[in-house]
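A quick aside before the break. I want you to see a complete sequence-to-structure record at least once, exactly as it would be stored in a machine-readable document. Don't worry about memorizing anything.
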Amino acid sequence: MVISDLVDDPTPYHGEVFTRRWIVELILDLVGYTADRDLAGSVLVEPSCGAGAFLVPVVERLVASAVAHGHDFGSLRAAIRAFDLVDTNAIRSREAVATTLVGLGVDLDVAMTLADTWVIEGDFLRHGHVDGTADFVVGNPPYIRLEDVPRATMDDYRRICRTMRGRADIYVGFIERGLQLLNPDGVLGFICADRWMRNQYGADLRELVAAEYAVDTVIAMHDVDAFEDAVSAYPAITVFRKARQRTAVAADARSTFDEQAGSRLTSWIRHGSHGSLDEGSFEATRVNGWFTGRDLWPAGSPGQLALIADLESRFAPLESTATGTRVGIGVATGCDDVYITNNADIVEHDRLLPVLRAQDIATGMTRWSGDYLVNPWDGGRLVDLGSYPRLAAYLEDNQRRLRGRHIAKKRPTAWYRTIDRVSEGLTERPKLLLPDIKAAAHPVLDAGGHYPHHNLYYVISDAWDLEVLGGILLSDVANLFVGTYCVKMRGGTYRFQAQYIRRIRVPDPGSIDRRDRRALVEAFRMRDAKRATAIAERVYGITEIARCARETA
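That is the input. The structure line, written in tokens, reads:
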């Protein structure tokens, strides 16, 4: 019997991106849904079955397993639960399943009954699931921005899926609900965009994974032709398990990655091989544990991720209350034409702070341009303009421009404030300064006397000799951390923002011996990043910083 697998579909786009057969087979292998196992007693859930790209290989494996283990086909009714919101997709999937079953020797009536039972027309996220009832959850969830769905639906999704925050894609909800369906040691394998790993809207989902699940495998597939249609989805295969976190595999599949390469990678993973494997079409490494909490997961080669994971497991973050080390950003004024001046007599002298901008530290030394910040703050509060007649006259002369700013409209009585408060005492403190946008880490010491502008980040510390710390930050350690966590600018330059600088791991200041401290200071003063990197490798007890940092470029 021939059952058509094509149905005219007048419905609008529902985020459907259909997966190539060999990618489906790879995911099924990775989650362990293989015909050599007795699959009849297991439950597999497919949350967005489309035309049956996942279902057909699943059914083939299930039938082969049932034959091998002597199960009656009629006993398989509970083995699969597949969902699709679009009625024509549900029809396609039922027809594809029935056709596959009949072709494998299943009686037509049984095949039709199983197809009707397995494929459910409905919204996976709104369905009344019982948590902890699935052994496997696999699929390719839809790609739809949450704000693009009807308001009532969006409100329901947010209520049901607590990780679906901000401007998330609904695949975030599919991952959350799929994970919640897993029973102990159950496995989820999805191919979908990896943006949630490195965007703010994925923070709650990352926290959920870290708290209750284990990362088995992450395969970046940005350059792989994984879908039937060409899409720019930045896909990754992710395999999560309802279990305690142990080792995890990070892999990067290149454009030549194909079915044969996938088989070799799966075999390497199954054998529990340690270390790394680079076969040309992919690179993989096994890491101890995974990244915890809600912070961004780094992006990079498997070697970079392994080194980052190792450093994060052994060393503390740069920003630390234990060492009194803090990372901050310079002042944003909202109107530099008014608040930045080179006229030392324009307002009262104590209302001026020498200000440093990125161009003032370009040489690796602080070379103050002569510009001042007009400072309306004192002790964290705006000054009383009545006490500063020259400041008052200057600001009132520019009142129209200042009152037109967003910050002034929000707080009309504080119309002369800068966007950021000026931090009391920061001017006098020694600090390391790092430009916001740079191709490589460029820490510069300000011994004190200047205030940083908003295109500079600063590091202050109670425990560190800042020149020793400057040597570490000049090394490729900083490039490695910032390069794997940040979104690169055009041309490959990095954003050295506070959230990334804080992620840099550093040793205890007291653990660095005198010889290495002196060498780091000398390298910092000479601006010798290569020497600083060599010393840092010794201090951190590793030999891969330079190579891994180069790979981030």
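Two observations worth writing down. The first strand starts at residue 44 and ends at 46. The two ends are 57 Å apart (CA to CA). We'll return to this after the break.
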